[in-house]
Amino acid sequence: MSNAERYVLVLYYSRHGATAKMARLIAEGIEKTGMPARLRTVPSVSADTQASQPAVPEQGAVYCSEDDLRNCSALVLGSPTRFGNMAAPLKYFIDGTSSLWLAGSLANKPAAVFTSTASLHGGQESTLLSMQLPLMHHGMLLAGLPYTNPELTETRGGGTPYGASHHAGADGARGLDKHEAALCRALGERVALLTQQLHAGAAHVPS
Ligand SMILES: Cc1cc2nc3c(=O)[nH]c(=O)nc-3n(C[C@H](O)[C@H](O)[C@H](O)COP(=O)(O)O)c2cc1C
Fold first, then answer.
1. What is the rounded CA–CA span in Å between residue 151 and residue 114?
2. Which residues, if any, are the signal sequence (predicted)?
């Protein structure tokens, strides 16, 4: 597979749009490296887990297919924080990936995570860590954000070494500030560069 055919999947759930904004900034960071980003979302789930929405979303990213996930070169996974954890629609989607797990389809691929919260200390880090757990079971190579990004120490909003985060405020009206936005772009760029370096290195390993 050539670099042109590779893509980083940015897979997220967003009910009110804050996590979706982060996804678009992460995609900007990925595409800065010359690698395509593929933005995908997941449908909401109803109490009885039956489909409650049209098969194609009315706006924004389309729903993620199994092939979108199987064929990605890397994954950046995003969710709003819900009670300190990822949102059920994303967890529901991930719980349906057993066949990819059995086949090892995601093993040895880079991955990273991002989240948005209403309150500043409302569980960003616990959510990010919880999102990393299934990715580790899939054998993915987790990337966080290093403190060489100055925004990590300067931020008065979101931004963690475990992944990108955003404090959207109680009414969701607080936009991404410059530090949060820079860290979203940095995370996307980091995952894309790691992916390219892994593939370049693999090309030099004798078979
Ligand atoms: C059921 C539920 C639980 C939530 N739990 C938390 C929480 O634990 N901590 C927090 O700060 N915000 C919490 N929120 C708020 C969302 O995380 C926040 O509004 C987020 O920015 C929404 O992202 P979105 O705009 O992408 O949907 C919760 C929201 C809902 C609906």
1. 16
2. none
3-state SS assignment for residue 81: strand
User: What are 130-186's pLDDT values in tens digits?
Assistant: 999 999 999 999 999 999 999 999 999 999 999 999 999 999 999 999 999 999 999
What residue's CA is closest to ligand 1, atom 22?
80
Which structural domain range is residue 113 located in? 3-202
Is the ipTM higher than 0.85? The answer is: yes
Residue 81 CA: which ligand 1 atom is closest?
17
Tokens of 47: 């109490």
Burial class of 72 by CB neighbour count within 10 A (0 to 12, 13 to 18, 19+):
buried
Q: Which atom of ligand 1 is nearest to the CA of 20?
A: 26
Which residue reads 């959510």 in tokens? 127
- The tally of domains found in the chain comes to 1
Alpha-carbon distance 121 to 98, whole Å? 33
For residue 207, tell me if it sits in a domain: no
Checking DSSP bridges between strand 85-86 and strand 62-63, what pairing results, if any?
A: unpaired
Q: How confident is the model over 99-128, as pLDDT tens digits?
A: 999 999 999 999 999 999 999 999 999 999
109 domain-assigned:
yes
Closest CA to 106 of 144, 77, 146: 77
